Structures are given as C-alpha cells and as structure tokens.
Amino acid sequence: MFVELAQMAKAGPVTIIVTGDEKSLQVTVCPKGAGPLATPISLTGSPAELDAEIAHCLLRFQGARKSLQEQMDATTAVLEEAKKASAGDAAKALSKAASKPSKAAVMADEEGDGEGDDGGCCEAAPAVGNTSAATPSDNPFL
Questions:
Q1: What is the domain partition of the chain in residue ranges?
Q2: Does the N terminus or the C terminus of the chain have fewer Cβ atoms within 10 A?
Q3: With contact defined as beta carbons under 8 Å apart, do 42 and 26 qualify?
Q4: What is the pLDDT of residue 140?
Q5: Please, is 8 exposed, middle or buried when counting C-beta atoms within 10 Å of its C-beta (0-12, 13-18, 19+)?
Q6: CA 86, CA 93: separation in Å to the nearest integer?
Q7: CB under 8 Å to 29, separation ≥6 — which residues?
Q8: DSSP the chain
Q9: CA distances (Å), 34 to each of 5, 37, 87, 111, in order?
C-alpha cells in the first residue's frame, strides 16, 4: 500500500483519513491539487478486504489521476498553440490593413476626375436661371 501511496505523493501531498470500528474501516485518500485531480477516493471494507485490495485500488486510482493530468497537459498545450496562432493571425491582419488604402479613399478617388486630391467636390456647378455675375453684396454667403 505504501509503494502506491509513494507514487501518488510524487505528484503532490496526499492526506489519508481512516475511520471505522472492528468490523469495517473506511479509508479516504485525498490528493492535493485542483479540479478533478483533487478528487478523493474513499474505500470501505473489512480490515482483511482492505489489506487484500487497497493496493490494487490505489494503483487504478493513480492511473486515472495520471490520465487526467496527461489530458489536462495536452489540452493546455493545444490552447497555448491556438493562442499563439491567433495572435500571429491578428498581427498579419493589422499589418495587411495598414498597408492598403481604405475602401472609402479608393471610392472617393474613383468618383473624381483624377486631377487633384479634392475628389471633384469643388468643380463649378452649371448655372441655373439668372446667369449674371453675383456681386458680394448680392450673396450673403460671400
């Protein structure tokens, strides 16, 4: 039993609680940790049953804990790689966006006559109605 407990203790501290009477014992093994790796195992049986089977039960329990740890490590590695890839994609997108002119600027240039940078917004409008020259006193906006 202590060989199996020693393997569990390599992963972190282990607390053992034993309660019972002459006919039945309950042995609870509480590994320290976070999440499902901290799940305790509680075995109840006669002292003879526990002597015969507790080592095997602790081996199976340790195997399950190791499997959970391996799964958690693999998942953490995948998440870290995804985070790095996402950061790289974002940096590429920002650099690509910075190197292209904005769509609005391209459209404004296409609408103009291609001369100057005013986009054709200051061209003279055709005269409607009275075509005599306006003097500053006639036009309140001048």
A1: 2-98
A2: C
A3: yes
A4: 58
A5: buried
A6: 11
A7: 5, 8, 14, 15, 16, 40, 41, 42, 43, 58, 61
A8: -HHHHHHHHHHS-EEEEEEE-SS-EEEEEEE--SGGGG--EEEEE-HHHHHHHHHHHHHHHHHHHHHHHHHHHHHHHHHHHHHHHHHHHHHHHHHHHHHSPPHHHHHHHHHS-SSSSSTTTTSPPPP-S--SPPPTTT-TT-
A9: 19, 6, 29, 63
Whether the full predicted model's pTM is greater than 0.90, yes or no, is no
Q: For residue 120, give both structure tokens.
A: 């054709």
Q: How far apart are alpha carbons 61 and 42 in whole angstroms? A: 11
Q: Which two tokens stand for residue 101?
A: 């002119």
